[in-house]
Amino acid sequence: MSRQIRINAFALAAPSHLSPGLWRHPRDRSSEYNTLRYWTDLASIAERGKFDGIFLADGISLYDVYKGSSEPAVRLGVQFPRLDPILLVSAMAHVTQHLGFGITSSVTYEPPYLFARRMNTLDHITQGRVGWNIVTSFGNSGTKALKGEDAKPHGDRYALADDYLDLVYKYWEGSWEDAAAVRDRATGVFADPGLIHEVSHHSANFKSEGIFIAEPSPQRTPLLYQAGASTRGREFAARHAECVFVSGPTKKVVGDLVADVRRRAADNGRDPREILFFASIKIIPGKTESEAVAKYEDYRQYASVEGAAALYSRWSGIDLAQYDLDEPLRHEESNHMQSAVESYTTADPGRTWTVRDILEAIALGNRGSTLLVGSPSEVADGLQSWVDETDVDGFNLGYVLAHESFADFAELVVPELQRRGVYKKAYRAGTLREKLFGRSPRLGDSHPAHKHRRPGNAA
Predict the structure, then answer these.
(1) How many helices (H) and strands (E) does the chain have?
(2) What is the pLDDT of residues 331-374, one digit of tens each?
(3) What domains, with CATH codes, occur in the chain?
(4) Contacts of 195 (CB under 8 A, 6+ apart)
(5) Compositionally biased, Basic and acidic residues: which spans (predicted)?
(6) What is the per-residue pLDDT for 368?
(7) Which of 70, 147, 234, 430 gives 20 to 30 Å between its CA and that of 269?
(8) Residue positions in the annotated binding site?
(9) CA distance 407 to 400
(10) For residue 362, which phi and psi values (nearest 5 degrees)?
(11) Binding site for FMN: which residues?
């Protein structure tokens, strides 16, 4: 049986995400990012297209590496300004029944207790449709604005993340027993104090004493996403993640990354097939190839090369203004996204990337995604080849034009994938975890959160 392709809509609460300059297009809706209708319309389109979820990127740092300043990004609206994505989910959940929501939140910025309660709240009111994209945040401007200090070194951020996860697992999995919320009208007992336990956590990063204030939600722990592709990030994903967001400019880069994380997961005692991989992609479909190419040429007129330089410079920590356009990119170490540099240098030694190549690739693409342009059949062929050759399970589908790109995919590509038997025609019942994996709404026994689960609590 053919492998089912999974799709997330990839978005950011800003007037530009990964297609700098396209907010100027007359049909683009990105400038409406600060209206509720923008997000409820997006959710309705995604559910109509049977998308698995909306994956919401986030961060509070500026794009300030290019030319040593945030001025280009601010002027061009490159992921600026930006809203808090977690506040958008309630409205989107209200207009949908099945769609999942992956929310990015940083272990560097959010106190564990308050974050755990906020995610628990969303899991309750969505009936178990939320996931958490775990990030560690490398941007100095964000940590300086929040705390008045530079971001932690790469390795230290992941050590903090492991500690953070250990603590929130205790809140979600260990504080309440399943039977604690009695709700007994006859006796007047709402919660049994004997079945609610104190969390005790003392580490170099966090200290916590007391019970978790929120009762268990449908998933207890939200579905866990992670996107780190550095060596340390891969180890973290292999230990904690259920879904991994991968990106790379070639199939070799993506395939090698997927294989490595699956191997590391097995070394951690986990079933590597219980991790789903979503590759970054953008698609410009048309009813015919010529219609798709015409859309592409139309979109290109609005793409901002300067905006693309601001994006990549901040991701990589390399100021592209220091390079000639036809100069090959050199591998440099930084405290930024190590994979953003490796993808265009050491990860695929058979390909040399100049700065011009990179900017052209990401102007309508992104840091490491492919761009498919063509008829529904051609796009479907491309998606299936990526699944077959890289072992990914699906895609984080970025938009070129909001919300046209998502609506075009739902209208044109989804029926072709369904015809081929590689895309669902109906949603599974249950929580986001149940829909994606077809099993329990709770984390499996091989996951490290299991050690915090109270005896007798359901898996």
Answers:
(1) 16, 13
(2) 766 555 555 666 666 556 667 778 888 888 777 764 445 899 99
(3) 6-148+157-314+369-447 (3.20.20.30)
(4) 176, 177, 179, 180
(5) 438-448
(6) 45
(7) 430
(8) 58, 104, 154, 158, 230
(9) 12
(10) -100, -10
(11) 58, 104, 154, 158, 230
